[in-house]
Every structure is written in structure tokens, then in C-alpha cells.
């Protein structure tokens, strides 16, 4: 043995750190699978009235489970241990499902409102001009036409 080499004892049963990391990874994967199962159940229960289904529902489930897992891991040190871990974790799941479902419903409502507005604009362009008003011609007249609220006009 050379003078500069140091002897270090080898850990029993191979390297301990990778086994520990894989154990943590395995626990996280099992927790994520549990959260995903709970999220899917809760989304199925709530989505019937929301009108969301198919791949969009599955995508919401994965997003909510991942966000719940991140929230749980962040708050793990704050847990007081007054209830079972799964009961505590379900609170995060319910919160994330509510948040994701609300966001999806708002997105659907915004999309429906935009589609209705676009359909309304197309519908107005097809209406006959019964009053003989042309917006371009009215704009050209601009200031020469009396305005609503002026003393000599009726509105």
C-alpha cells in the first residue's frame, strides 16, 4: 500500500447510497400511484357534472397527482402527525382536484364564450341593413352629425 492511499472500509452489502436513493424513489412512485388512483376516483365522481372526459380527464388526473405529490413533499416537515398519513395526503389531493377542475371549467367557459362571440360577429354581417346605416359612411360624417346628449337631438 502506498504512503498516500487511505484505507476506507467498504460498506456491507455493497453501496448503501444508491440503495437508499432507489428506496426513496420507490416510495415516491408508490405514493404517486396512490395519489393518481385517488385523483382519478375523485375526478370521475366530479366530472359527470363538469362535462369533461377522455384524454383531457386523464391529463387532469396526472397533473393533479403530480402537483399534490409536490405539495405533500414540501409540507412533509409541517405535518403534526395527528392523523394517518394517507388522510393528511388526501387533503392535498382534494385541493388539487378542485383547483384543476375549476381551471378546466374556466377554460371551457372561455372557449365557449369566444366561439359564441365569433359566431355572433359572423351572424351580424349576414343581417340585412334595414335602417340604411353604413358604419363606414357614419364614420366619415363623424363630427358633422349631432351626438346623443346634445340639446337639439333625441336619443
How would you summarize this macromolecular structure in one to three sentences?
Helix content is 67%, strand content 0%. The protein has 155 residues and is an all-alpha fold.
What is the topology?
Blueprint: H1 16-50, H2 55-75, H3 85-125, H4 135-141
Describe the structure.
The model has no long low-confidence stretch (mean pLDDT 75). This protein starts with 15 loop residues before the first helix and ends in a 14-residue tail after the last helix. By secondary structure, the chain is mostly helical. The chain has one domain (16-125). The chain is built from four helices and no strands.
- Kindly report how far apart the N and C termini lie: 105 Å
Summed up, the domain count is: 1
What is the mean pLDDT? Answer: 75
Number of helical stretches of at least 4 residues: 4
Number of β-strand runs = 0
Q: Give the biggest sheet.
A: none
Given as residue ranges, the uncertain stretches (5+ residues, pLDDT < 50) are none
The string of secondary-structure elements, in order, is HHHH
Strand content: under 5%
* Structural shape: elongated
State the main characteristics:
155 residues, mainly alpha, 4 helices, 67% helix
Amino acid at each position: 500500500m502506498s504512503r498516500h492511499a487511505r484505507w476506507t472500509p467498504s460498506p456491507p452489502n455493497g453501496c448503501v447510497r444508491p440503495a437508499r436513493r432507489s428506496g426513496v424513489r420507490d416510495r415516491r412512485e408508490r405514493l404517486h400511484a396512490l395519489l393518481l388512483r385517488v385523483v382519478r376516483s375523485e375526478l370521475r365522481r366530479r366530472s359527470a357534472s363538469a362535462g369533461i372526459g377522455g384524454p383531457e380527464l386523464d391529463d387532469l388526473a396526472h397533473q393533479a397527482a403530480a402537483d399534490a405529490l409536490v405539495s405533500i413533499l414540501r409540507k412533509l416537515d409541517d405535518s403534526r402527525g395527528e392523523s394517518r398519513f394517507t388522510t393528511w395526503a388526501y387533503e392535498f389531493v382534494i385541493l388539487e382536484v378542485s383547483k384543476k377542475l375549476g381551471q378546466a371549467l374556466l377554460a371551457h367557459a372561455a372557449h365557449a364564450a369566444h366561439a359564441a362571440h365569433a359566431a355572433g360577429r359572423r351572424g351580424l354581417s349576414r343581417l340585412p341593413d334595414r335602417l340604411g346605416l353604413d358604419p363606414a359612411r357614419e364614420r366619415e360624417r363623424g363630427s358633422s352629425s349631432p351626438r346623443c346628449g346634445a340639446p337639439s337631438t333625441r336619443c
